[in-house]
Design a protein that fits this description.
Helices cover 39% and strands 8% of the residues. By secondary structure, it is mostly helical. Helix 2 packs across helix 3 (30-39).
């Protein structure tokens, strides 16, 4: 195998591609790809899911997916459709009477600060 083929095999394995698909794409034998992958195993959890930076996994600890909190936050903000918000509940605003969704366990009575001010201090509410 050439150096470029080895790099391509490693890149495809990191993406989760199987031996057969790698062999077909590179025009190699499945056994050649399989042997190479067994002799050169990829370390578990090698790269950050957001930036691709290398991550060192600690034995006996939970597997890390991100290299830092900044990368974790950036990835989750870019993939909001994957977030399963289980603690969302519908509450009726004490100020305007409209229903709104509140997240988490914190007790919320108002849909906005403007409703709070209007209801609590008798201000003008729109």
């Amino acid at each position: 195998m050439t150096k470029e083929e080895k790099q391509r095999v490693e890149a495809l394995r990191r993406q989760g591609t199987g031996y057969g698909a790698i062999a077909w794409e590179l025009g190699l034998s499945v056994n050649t790809v399989k042997s190479y992958c067994r002799r050169h195993p990829l370390p578990d959890g090698t790269v950050c899911e957001n930036c691709g930076a290398p991550i060192v996994q600690m034995p006996g600890r939970k597997r890390k997916r991100f290299c830092s909190d900044a990368c974790r936050n950036a990835w989750w903000n870019a993939h909001l459709d994957l977030v399963k918000r289980k603690a969302v509940r519908t509450v009726v605003c004490a100020g305007c009477g409209q229903p709104f969704e509140a997240y988490g366990r914190a007790p919320r009575k108002y849909c906005s600060h403007a409703c709070y001010v209007a209801h609590r201090f008798g201000g003008h509410h729109e």
